[in-house]
Design brief:
24% strand; alpha+beta; 7 helices; 8 strands; Aminopeptidase; globular; eight-stranded mixed sheet
């Protein structure tokens, strides 16, 4: 007779940026370094293709909490083990206030369980003053989690909203990699200089390997029988997604 399945306890926690101590940042850095992804072939030296993308607790704090007073994190624990996290920083821009997801990662063994969506839903509900939510990611799962959290279908993504507000959001950002990123795609470039297969990307010079994201994108296309509205993914770039948040 087989033993009964162990009971699973899931807990979601939202904390302000100023409440995160060094031990919590170390735990988050370990989750990121173990499960985020690997470097691609075009990653500059001394980075090695195929090696894990890693981050120390100190660097993590600097990257995802540039303005702690206006930042927060949504954490997911299963049986007291951290399995998912979503950091976000908010700021005003010409057109509203954005809740920008600076990092989203879920442990490999707990993916495809809507944990990423739950994390982002917690962030959105925690910041009712925000009129928009966005992220830059090479992984379609992160983009889909964002649209689900905003109650938007990816097939009906409002590209005109991105086109109207993206540059204003980036210009006002306290997050360095967003403020300095070059926006690329037909939403931001004229037809003569742009690539018609690229729609909405941010050139963040983040050369992570795209094998897993592209495989996931292929599965989404086959399942949905739709074209990916954000266009083709380019090395060193990330999909740029910005969606309006409806008042609760």
């Amino acid at each position: 007779m087989s033993p009964p399945d162990a009971e699973v306890w899931l807990k979601l926690v939202v904390l302000g940026g100023t409440a995160l101590d060094d031990e919590m940042m170390k735990e988050s850095a370990t989750l990121f370094s173990s499960h985020y992804g690997v470097w691609g072939g075009e990653a500059p030296a001394p980075l090695t293709a195929g090696s894990r993308v890693k981050m120390t607790a100190r660097k993590l704090r600097a990257e995802v909490l540039p303005d702690p007073a206006n930042s927060c994190v949504s954490l997911c624990y299963i049986n007291n083990t951290l399995v998912g996290q979503a950091f976000a920083t908010t700021w005003a821009f010409d057109g509203g206030r954005v809740c920008w997801v600076t990092q989203l990662v879920v442990s490999s063994e707990h993916r495809q369980r809507n944990i990423a969506t739950m994390l982002l839903l917690q962030l959105a509900s925690n910041r009712p003053d925000c009129t928009a939510m966005g992220l830059a990611s090479s992984h379609p799962a992160a983009c889909l989690a964002l649209t689900k959290a905003a109650h938007v279908s990816m097939q009906q993504l409002d590209l005109s909203f991105i086109q109207k507000h993206a540059k204003h959001v980036c210009a006002a950002s306290p997050v360095r990699y967003i403020r300095t990123a070059r926006l690329r795609g037909v939403l931001f470039e004229d037809e003569e200089s742009g690539d018609p297969t690229v729609v909405s990307l941010a050139n963040t010079e983040y050369f992570v390997d795209h094998a897993e994201p592209l495989a996931a994108l292929g599965k989404w296309k086959a399942k949905s029988s739709s074209e990916w509205p954000l266009g083709r993914l380019v090395q060193g770039h990330e999909f740029f997604v910005l969606v309006p948040l409806r008042p609760c």
